[in-house]
Amino acid sequence: SGPLDKEQMQGLRGVREFLKVRTSYDVLPLSFRLVVLDNNLLIKKSLNILIQNGIVSAPLWDSQNSAFAGLLTSTDFINVIQYYCQFPDEIAHIDQFRLSSLRDIERAIGVLPLETVSVHPMRPLYEACRRMLKTRARRIPLVDRDDETGREMVVSVITQYRILKFIAVNNEQYTMLLKKPVRELGLGTYKDLATATMGSSVLDVIHLMVKYNISAVPIIDRDNKVLNLFEAVDVIPCIKGGAYDELSATVGEALSRRAEEFGGIYTCNEDDRLDAIFDTIRKSRVHRLIVVDDDNRLKGIISLSDILKYVLLYGEEDDDIRGN
Ligand code: ADP
Hints:
CBS-domain; single chain; binds adenosine-5'-diphosphate; 2 domains
Protein backbone atom coordinates (compact mmCIF):
# COMPACT_ATOMS: atom_id res chain seq x y z
CA SER A 1 0.00 0.00 0.00
CA GLY A 2 1.25 3.46 -0.96
CA PRO A 3 1.38 6.79 0.89
CA LEU A 4 -2.12 7.59 -0.37
CA ASP A 5 -3.53 4.52 1.38
CA LYS A 6 -1.74 5.48 4.53
CA GLU A 7 -3.12 8.99 4.48
CA GLN A 8 -6.61 7.73 3.68
CA MET A 9 -6.56 5.36 6.70
CA GLN A 10 -5.23 8.15 8.88
CA GLY A 11 -8.17 10.33 7.84
CA LEU A 12 -10.70 7.57 8.44
CA ARG A 13 -9.22 6.81 11.86
CA GLY A 14 -9.38 10.48 12.81
CA VAL A 15 -13.07 10.69 11.95
CA ARG A 16 -13.84 7.43 13.78
CA GLU A 17 -12.09 8.65 16.93
CA PHE A 18 -14.08 11.88 16.71
CA LEU A 19 -17.36 9.93 16.53
CA LYS A 20 -16.34 7.96 19.61
CA VAL A 21 -15.72 11.01 21.77
CA ARG A 22 -18.82 12.94 20.71
CA THR A 23 -22.41 12.16 21.63
CA SER A 24 -25.63 12.43 19.65
CA TYR A 25 -26.44 15.38 21.87
CA ASP A 26 -23.43 17.25 20.45
CA VAL A 27 -24.97 17.09 16.96
CA LEU A 28 -28.04 19.06 18.00
CA PRO A 29 -28.05 22.81 17.42
CA LEU A 30 -28.05 25.04 20.52
CA SER A 31 -31.70 25.79 20.08
CA PHE A 32 -34.19 23.83 18.02
CA ARG A 33 -37.85 23.10 17.81
CA LEU A 34 -39.32 19.61 17.69
CA VAL A 35 -42.73 18.91 16.18
CA VAL A 36 -44.23 15.84 17.83
CA LEU A 37 -47.51 14.47 16.49
CA ASP A 38 -50.23 12.83 18.53
CA ASN A 39 -50.84 9.27 17.38
CA ASN A 40 -54.55 10.01 17.32
CA LEU A 41 -54.26 12.58 14.55
CA LEU A 42 -55.77 11.86 11.13
CA ILE A 43 -53.08 10.87 8.63
CA LYS A 44 -54.50 13.47 6.25
CA LYS A 45 -53.97 16.22 8.84
CA SER A 46 -50.46 15.07 9.62
CA LEU A 47 -49.53 15.69 5.98
CA ASN A 48 -50.62 19.30 6.22
CA ILE A 49 -48.72 19.82 9.44
CA LEU A 50 -45.50 18.44 7.94
CA ILE A 51 -45.89 20.65 4.88
CA GLN A 52 -46.75 23.76 6.90
CA ASN A 53 -43.71 23.25 9.09
CA GLY A 54 -41.40 22.46 6.21
CA ILE A 55 -40.42 19.07 7.68
CA VAL A 56 -40.58 15.54 6.29
CA SER A 57 -40.76 13.47 9.45
CA ALA A 58 -41.86 13.67 13.09
CA PRO A 59 -41.87 11.52 16.23
CA LEU A 60 -45.26 10.15 17.27
CA TRP A 61 -46.64 10.35 20.75
CA ASP A 62 -49.16 7.96 22.29
CA SER A 63 -50.92 10.26 24.75
CA GLN A 64 -53.05 7.48 26.20
CA ASN A 65 -49.98 5.65 27.45
CA SER A 66 -47.68 8.69 27.60
CA ALA A 67 -45.15 6.91 25.45
CA PHE A 68 -43.08 7.44 22.34
CA ALA A 69 -44.82 5.65 19.46
CA GLY A 70 -42.28 5.64 16.64
CA LEU A 71 -41.31 7.98 13.83
CA LEU A 72 -43.55 9.16 11.04
CA THR A 73 -41.57 9.26 7.77
CA SER A 74 -42.21 9.29 4.04
CA THR A 75 -42.08 5.47 4.15
CA ASP A 76 -45.39 5.55 6.05
CA PHE A 77 -47.01 7.62 3.31
CA ILE A 78 -45.65 5.27 0.69
CA ASN A 79 -47.25 2.43 2.66
CA VAL A 80 -50.59 4.24 2.66
CA ILE A 81 -50.28 4.64 -1.12
CA GLN A 82 -49.57 0.93 -1.53
CA TYR A 83 -52.61 0.23 0.60
CA TYR A 84 -54.66 2.47 -1.67
CA CYS A 85 -53.38 0.57 -4.72
CA GLN A 86 -54.27 -2.80 -3.22
CA PHE A 87 -57.64 -1.73 -1.82
CA PRO A 88 -58.86 1.11 -4.08
CA ASP A 89 -62.44 0.70 -2.85
CA GLU A 90 -61.32 1.67 0.65
CA ILE A 91 -60.60 5.28 -0.29
CA ALA A 92 -63.38 6.57 1.98
CA HIS A 93 -61.77 4.78 4.92
CA ILE A 94 -58.28 5.92 4.06
CA ASP A 95 -59.46 9.46 4.62
CA GLN A 96 -60.42 8.52 8.17
CA PHE A 97 -57.20 6.68 9.06
CA ARG A 98 -55.31 7.95 12.06
CA LEU A 99 -51.57 7.77 12.61
CA SER A 100 -52.23 4.95 15.05
CA SER A 101 -53.56 2.89 12.09
CA LEU A 102 -50.15 2.89 10.37
CA ARG A 103 -49.22 -0.46 11.92
CA ASP A 104 -52.48 -1.99 10.62
CA ILE A 105 -51.69 -0.65 7.17
CA GLU A 106 -48.26 -2.29 7.27
CA ARG A 107 -49.89 -5.57 8.20
CA ALA A 108 -52.56 -5.28 5.49
CA ILE A 109 -50.02 -4.72 2.70
CA GLY A 110 -47.60 -7.26 4.14
CA VAL A 111 -44.55 -5.10 4.86
CA LEU A 112 -42.46 -5.70 7.92
CA PRO A 113 -42.73 -2.89 10.43
CA LEU A 114 -39.54 -0.85 10.60
CA GLU A 115 -37.59 -1.57 13.71
CA THR A 116 -37.96 1.50 15.93
CA VAL A 117 -34.47 1.86 17.26
CA SER A 118 -33.69 4.80 19.44
CA VAL A 119 -30.54 5.91 21.20
CA HIS A 120 -29.86 7.80 24.38
CA PRO A 121 -28.60 11.31 23.53
CA MET A 122 -25.54 10.97 25.76
CA ARG A 123 -24.25 7.75 24.19
CA PRO A 124 -21.30 8.03 21.77
CA LEU A 125 -22.26 9.19 18.30
CA TYR A 126 -20.33 6.23 16.91
CA GLU A 127 -22.93 3.93 18.43
CA ALA A 128 -25.83 5.82 16.82
CA CYS A 129 -24.04 5.54 13.46
CA ARG A 130 -23.47 1.80 13.81
CA ARG A 131 -27.08 1.34 14.73
CA MET A 132 -28.24 3.34 11.72
CA LEU A 133 -26.19 1.21 9.37
CA LYS A 134 -27.30 -2.03 10.93
CA THR A 135 -31.02 -1.24 10.78
CA ARG A 136 -30.83 0.88 7.61
CA ALA A 137 -32.67 3.62 9.50
CA ARG A 138 -32.06 7.03 7.97
CA ARG A 139 -33.05 8.79 11.16
CA ILE A 140 -33.05 7.78 14.81
CA PRO A 141 -34.99 9.36 17.67
CA LEU A 142 -33.03 10.39 20.73
CA VAL A 143 -35.00 9.11 23.68
CA ASP A 144 -34.25 10.01 27.28
CA ARG A 145 -36.10 9.24 30.47
CA ASP A 146 -37.56 11.92 32.74
CA ASP A 147 -35.95 11.55 36.18
CA GLU A 148 -39.09 12.54 38.06
CA THR A 149 -41.86 10.74 36.21
CA GLY A 150 -39.76 7.92 34.76
CA ARG A 151 -41.46 8.55 31.44
CA GLU A 152 -39.82 8.45 28.04
CA MET A 153 -39.05 11.78 26.40
CA VAL A 154 -38.13 12.33 22.79
CA VAL A 155 -35.35 14.90 22.85
CA SER A 156 -34.84 15.15 19.11
CA VAL A 157 -34.18 13.08 16.01
CA ILE A 158 -30.78 12.71 14.38
CA THR A 159 -30.42 11.89 10.72
CA GLN A 160 -27.63 10.54 8.52
CA TYR A 161 -27.65 13.95 6.91
CA ARG A 162 -27.00 15.77 10.21
CA ILE A 163 -24.28 13.36 11.22
CA LEU A 164 -22.39 13.67 7.94
CA LYS A 165 -22.73 17.45 8.10
CA PHE A 166 -21.39 17.38 11.67
CA ILE A 167 -18.44 15.23 10.57
CA ALA A 168 -17.73 17.47 7.57
CA VAL A 169 -17.86 20.71 9.58
CA ASN A 170 -15.68 19.51 12.46
CA ASN A 171 -13.11 17.27 10.80
CA GLU A 172 -11.66 19.19 7.93
CA GLN A 173 -8.15 18.20 9.06
CA TYR A 174 -9.10 14.53 8.60
CA THR A 175 -11.46 14.68 5.62
CA MET A 176 -8.76 16.53 3.65
CA LEU A 177 -6.69 13.34 3.89
CA LEU A 178 -9.35 11.35 2.03
CA LYS A 179 -7.77 11.82 -1.37
CA LYS A 180 -8.91 8.65 -3.08
CA PRO A 181 -11.37 9.06 -5.94
CA VAL A 182 -14.86 7.64 -5.84
CA ARG A 183 -13.99 5.23 -8.66
CA GLU A 184 -11.15 3.63 -6.73
CA LEU A 185 -13.22 3.31 -3.55
CA GLY A 186 -16.15 1.80 -5.43
CA LEU A 187 -18.28 4.20 -3.42
CA GLY A 188 -21.97 3.99 -4.35
CA THR A 189 -24.06 1.83 -6.68
CA TYR A 190 -23.30 1.52 -10.40
CA LYS A 191 -25.18 -1.57 -11.53
CA ASP A 192 -28.88 -2.27 -11.80
CA LEU A 193 -29.87 1.35 -11.19
CA ALA A 194 -33.55 2.18 -10.82
CA THR A 195 -34.40 5.10 -13.11
CA ALA A 196 -37.49 6.75 -14.56
CA THR A 197 -38.35 9.39 -17.15
CA MET A 198 -40.30 12.65 -16.96
CA GLY A 199 -43.25 10.82 -18.52
CA SER A 200 -43.32 8.00 -15.93
CA SER A 201 -46.20 8.19 -13.48
CA VAL A 202 -45.53 9.09 -9.87
CA LEU A 203 -47.00 5.73 -8.93
CA ASP A 204 -44.47 3.88 -11.13
CA VAL A 205 -41.64 5.67 -9.37
CA ILE A 206 -43.08 4.88 -5.94
CA HIS A 207 -43.26 1.20 -6.89
CA LEU A 208 -39.60 1.35 -7.93
CA MET A 209 -38.61 2.83 -4.58
CA VAL A 210 -40.48 0.06 -2.79
CA LYS A 211 -39.06 -2.68 -4.98
CA TYR A 212 -35.45 -1.51 -4.63
CA ASN A 213 -35.82 -0.27 -1.07
CA ILE A 214 -34.33 3.10 -2.00
CA SER A 215 -35.23 6.69 -1.28
CA ALA A 216 -34.58 8.34 -4.66
CA VAL A 217 -34.85 7.58 -8.36
CA PRO A 218 -32.86 9.55 -10.99
CA ILE A 219 -34.99 10.94 -13.82
CA ILE A 220 -33.20 10.57 -17.14
CA ASP A 221 -33.87 11.30 -20.81
CA ARG A 222 -33.50 8.82 -23.68
CA ASP A 223 -29.76 9.49 -23.90
CA ASN A 224 -29.34 8.51 -20.26
CA LYS A 225 -28.70 12.15 -19.33
CA VAL A 226 -29.76 13.17 -15.84
CA LEU A 227 -32.66 15.64 -15.75
CA ASN A 228 -33.75 15.44 -12.13
CA LEU A 229 -34.24 13.19 -9.14
CA PHE A 230 -37.50 12.03 -7.58
CA GLU A 231 -37.12 11.55 -3.84
CA ALA A 232 -39.32 9.71 -1.34
CA VAL A 233 -40.05 13.05 0.32
CA ASP A 234 -41.47 14.35 -2.96
CA VAL A 235 -44.40 12.00 -2.34
CA ILE A 236 -45.69 14.14 0.53
CA PRO A 237 -46.99 17.12 -1.51
CA CYS A 238 -48.40 14.70 -4.09
CA ILE A 239 -50.97 13.25 -1.69
CA LYS A 240 -51.76 16.46 0.18
CA GLY A 241 -55.49 16.72 0.84
CA GLY A 242 -55.99 13.00 0.13
CA ALA A 243 -55.53 13.41 -3.62
CA TYR A 244 -54.52 9.78 -4.22
CA ASP A 245 -55.98 9.74 -7.71
CA GLU A 246 -53.37 12.34 -8.70
CA LEU A 247 -50.62 9.77 -8.32
CA SER A 248 -51.21 8.85 -11.93
CA ALA A 249 -49.77 12.27 -12.84
CA THR A 250 -46.33 12.31 -14.42
CA VAL A 251 -43.07 12.85 -12.61
CA GLY A 252 -42.63 16.03 -14.64
CA GLU A 253 -45.88 17.45 -13.27
CA ALA A 254 -45.08 16.40 -9.71
CA LEU A 255 -41.59 17.91 -9.77
CA SER A 256 -42.90 21.20 -11.08
CA ARG A 257 -44.83 21.51 -7.81
CA ARG A 258 -41.73 21.24 -5.66
CA ALA A 259 -41.41 23.85 -2.93
CA GLU A 260 -39.45 27.02 -3.64
CA GLU A 261 -36.83 26.18 -1.04
CA PHE A 262 -35.89 22.91 -2.76
CA GLY A 263 -32.12 22.74 -2.52
CA GLY A 264 -31.40 21.24 -5.92
CA ILE A 265 -29.65 18.05 -6.87
CA TYR A 266 -25.95 17.34 -6.54
CA THR A 267 -23.80 15.50 -8.98
CA CYS A 268 -20.23 14.32 -8.96
CA ASN A 269 -17.80 12.57 -11.25
CA GLU A 270 -16.16 9.18 -10.68
CA ASP A 271 -12.80 10.94 -10.58
CA ASP A 272 -13.88 13.23 -7.75
CA ARG A 273 -12.13 12.53 -4.49
CA LEU A 274 -13.84 11.85 -1.21
CA ASP A 275 -12.39 15.06 0.28
CA ALA A 276 -14.25 17.03 -2.40
CA ILE A 277 -17.47 15.21 -1.54
CA PHE A 278 -17.00 16.19 2.09
CA ASP A 279 -16.50 19.80 0.97
CA THR A 280 -19.87 19.61 -0.80
CA ILE A 281 -21.51 18.12 2.31
CA ARG A 282 -19.99 20.89 4.43
CA LYS A 283 -21.35 23.63 2.19
CA SER A 284 -24.68 22.33 0.91
CA ARG A 285 -27.85 20.42 1.74
CA VAL A 286 -26.78 17.19 0.09
CA HIS A 287 -28.93 14.09 0.59
CA ARG A 288 -27.25 12.02 -2.13
CA LEU A 289 -24.97 12.52 -5.11
CA ILE A 290 -25.72 11.42 -8.63
CA VAL A 291 -22.56 10.24 -10.37
CA VAL A 292 -22.40 11.44 -13.98
CA ASP A 293 -19.83 11.42 -16.77
CA ASP A 294 -18.60 14.55 -18.58
CA ASP A 295 -21.75 14.55 -20.74
CA ASN A 296 -24.05 14.43 -17.72
CA ARG A 297 -24.92 10.78 -18.41
CA LEU A 298 -25.92 8.70 -15.42
CA LYS A 299 -23.18 6.43 -14.06
CA GLY A 300 -24.25 5.74 -10.50
CA ILE A 301 -25.58 7.06 -7.24
CA ILE A 302 -23.90 7.67 -3.90
CA SER A 303 -26.24 7.72 -0.93
CA LEU A 304 -25.45 9.14 2.48
CA SER A 305 -25.56 5.59 3.82
CA ASP A 306 -22.86 4.58 1.30
CA ILE A 307 -20.64 7.37 2.61
CA LEU A 308 -21.37 6.68 6.27
CA LYS A 309 -20.72 2.96 5.74
CA TYR A 310 -17.37 3.61 4.12
CA VAL A 311 -16.28 6.12 6.74
CA LEU A 312 -17.22 3.86 9.64
CA LEU A 313 -16.44 0.40 8.39
CA TYR A 314 -13.80 0.38 5.67
CA GLY A 315 -10.83 -1.70 6.80
CA GLU A 316 -12.44 -2.60 10.12
CA GLU A 317 -12.27 -6.25 11.08
CA ASP A 318 -15.87 -6.53 12.17
CA ASP A 319 -17.34 -5.08 9.00
CA ASP A 320 -20.27 -7.49 9.27
CA ILE A 321 -22.81 -4.84 8.29
CA ARG A 322 -21.20 -4.29 4.92
CA GLY A 323 -22.90 -7.32 3.52
CA ASN A 324 -19.90 -8.54 1.52
P1 ADP B 1 -30.10 6.20 2.09
O1 ADP B 1 -30.02 4.87 2.80
O2 ADP B 1 -28.89 7.06 2.33
O3 ADP B 1 -31.39 6.91 2.25
P2 ADP B 1 -30.93 4.95 -0.36
O4 ADP B 1 -31.99 4.23 0.40
O5 ADP B 1 -31.38 5.77 -1.51
O6 ADP B 1 -30.04 5.88 0.54
O7 ADP B 1 -29.85 3.92 -0.86
C1 ADP B 1 -29.68 2.62 -0.35
C2 ADP B 1 -28.69 1.87 -1.25
O8 ADP B 1 -29.24 1.75 -2.56
C3 ADP B 1 -27.36 2.58 -1.42
O9 ADP B 1 -26.32 1.62 -1.41
C4 ADP B 1 -27.45 3.27 -2.78
O10 ADP B 1 -26.20 3.34 -3.44
C5 ADP B 1 -28.42 2.37 -3.53
N1 ADP B 1 -29.29 3.17 -4.42
C6 ADP B 1 -29.78 4.40 -4.19
N2 ADP B 1 -30.55 4.82 -5.21
C7 ADP B 1 -30.55 3.84 -6.12
C8 ADP B 1 -31.15 3.66 -7.43
N3 ADP B 1 -31.94 4.60 -7.97
N4 ADP B 1 -30.93 2.50 -8.08
C9 ADP B 1 -30.16 1.53 -7.53
N5 ADP B 1 -29.56 1.64 -6.33
C10 ADP B 1 -29.74 2.77 -5.63
